[in-house]
Each structure stands twice: as structure tokens, then as C-alpha cells.
């Protein structure tokens, strides 16, 4: 779903003012460093801006600071996640403290890599395409 112009402008502004956990995670994700999966940062989708989005995996990664423990914010997050699911986007929420901790960051990256990996629901990746007739 295309985002409104105002959401695009806000996303551009957020890219310039990323938080420390966002910057750390972006350094680990940018340039398809994580198993070849490409991520976008502060990506607008409909009325929302996703911290990180892997289009090929339809995966959003959201970094949650302390504010996300607030009941009102948790309710908003649940509505937002439900809307994103209805658009076919899976949402992974990561505590900011895990990104700031070296061991925690390793676990976060491993979890993201597993979530973004191609589905093996049918026993593995699809067979290679062979051209010809």
C-alpha cells in the first residue's frame, strides 16, 4: 500500500535522526550484510513507518524502547501490527536493550536472519529454473 506524502516526508526526517539502537542495527543490516537480505530503514507503509523492512521477506523489524511497555502504547502497537499483518507483513519486535548489548545483538541478528530466510514449508527452496522448450 502506498503511503501518504506526509508519511514519506516524516520517514525521510526519521532517517536523519535515528536512535542509537536503530543506528547500531542498521550498520548490521545495511548492504545486504545479513545473509544477502536487503533491508530498508524508516520505510513508509500506509499510515505507518517501519524501523526496518525486508521487502523480499515481507518482514518488518521494530525496535522497542521503554515507552512500548506503556499500556496505551502497547494497545497502539497491537493495532498497528494487526494492520500490517492484514497487508501481509510480519512484524518482529526487538527490545532496544538487546540491540545495545553485544551478545543480545548477536541473538537479534540470528533471529532476524531466520525470520527472513526463504520458507522451507515444502521441503526446501524451489527448484532452479531451466530455460528452453
Topology:
Blueprint: H1 5-16, H2 20-29, E1 40-45, E2 48-54, E3 59-64, H3 71-86, E4 90-95, H4 96-100, H5 102-116
Keywords:
alpha+beta
Structure description:
It is a single chain. The chain is built from five helices and four strands; from the N terminus they run H-H-E-E-E-H-E-H-H. It has a single domain, classed as 3-Layer(aba) Sandwich (Endonuclease, Chain A). Strand 1 and strand 2 form a beta hairpin. The protein has 133 residues and is of the alpha+beta class. The model has no long low-confidence stretch (mean pLDDT 81). The protein has a four-stranded mixed β-sheet, with helices on both faces. It starts with a helix and ends in a 17-residue tail after the last helix. It has helices spanning 5-16, 20-29, 71-86, 96-100, 102-116; strands at 40-45, 48-54, 59-64, 90-95.
In short:
The protein has 133 residues and is of the alpha+beta class. 44% of the residues lie in helices and 19% in strands.
